Structures are given as structure tokens and as C-alpha cells.
């Protein structure tokens, strides 16, 4: 298993910010496409088909808008984290090595591949994280019938 340290955590944090920025840019492109689609639909023929097309385009814009709002929340969480800060007890911003893998207490995007290592990015509200919060190196939790030991906290 990867030995974790603050340098690894700082690079992971930067990679997550880049990932979220990439997702944000993709959503913005999708929103622009949806707006273009609505504008083109306005120029098409009138009637029921026209109204249905506009309604569908409007729904797509709303869906993308809510996804953009969610991405914005993820960015805010990441910017609150101080990746150079060491933690003795598990809290937001902790990188935790366990017998069940690496966990980064940050944003809930699940498994994230970084430097040939799979890191589970979870929010403090995730059920497994609720068990981990406040724990420190050497302690154990029980999750889904397994004993998980906390090897290291950074």
C-alpha cells in the first residue's frame, strides 16, 4: 500500500481540483450547447412540435444548471481543505490509510485513480466516514461486517 504523506495529499488535492474544474468546463459546454439548441428551436416552425422541443431544451438546461450548482459546491469544499495540514484525528481534509484502502475525507466522488493508487474520496456525511471521524492511527472501526484498522492519518 502507498505510504501517505503531505506531499501525496497536496498532489491529490490539486488533482481533485483539476478533475472538478474539468467536469465544470464540460458542464458549461453542455449548457452552451443546450442554450444554442433552444435558440435554434426558436427559429424553427411554430406549433406543438416547436413547444415540445423548447420544453425539452428548457428541462435540459435546468438539469445542467443543477449539476453546475453541485460542482460549485464541490469546489467550495475543496477550497476549504488545507492539504498541507497534518491531522492526528480524522476530519475534513484527512487522508486516511486503512486496511481497506485509502480514504480522502473531502468530496463524494468515490474511487479516484491517482498515481497508480485508488483513493476513495468521501464526504464527512458518508456512512463509513461517520464511523471514521474523530478516530486516529491504530484505532479500528467495523464496517459491513469487517474490522478496518486505521494505519495512518495525514
Which short descriptors sum up this protein?
single chain; 154 residues; alpha+beta; 2 domains; 6-stranded mixed beta sheet; 3 helices; 50% helix
Summarize this structure briefly:
With 154 residues, the chain is α+β, with helices and mostly antiparallel strands. It is 50% helix and 21% strand. Strand 1 (95-98) and strand 2 form a beta hairpin.
Total count of domains: 2
Strand percent estimate = 15-25%
Cα shape: elongated
Structural class: alpha+beta
Reported for the largest beta sheet, the result is: 6 strands, mixed
Question: Could you describe the 3D structure shown?
Answer:
The chain has 154 residues and is α+β, with helices and mostly antiparallel strands. The protein folds into 2 domains: 6-80; 95-153, no CATH class. It has helices at 6-43, 48-80, 127-132, and strands spanning 95-98, 101-105, 110-114, 117-122, 140-143, 146-153. Strand 3 (110-114) and strand 4 form a beta hairpin. The longest helix is centred in the first third of the chain and has 38 residues, at 6-43. The protein is elongated, with a radius of gyration of 21 Å. The model has no long low-confidence stretch (mean pLDDT 89).
Describe how the helices and strands are arranged:
Layout: H1 6-43, H2 48-80, E1 95-98, E2 101-105, E3 110-114, E4 117-122, H3 127-132, E5 140-143, E6 146-153
Parallel strand pairs: 2-4
Antiparallel strand pairs: 1-2, 1-6, 3-4, 5-6
Helix pairs in contact: 1-2
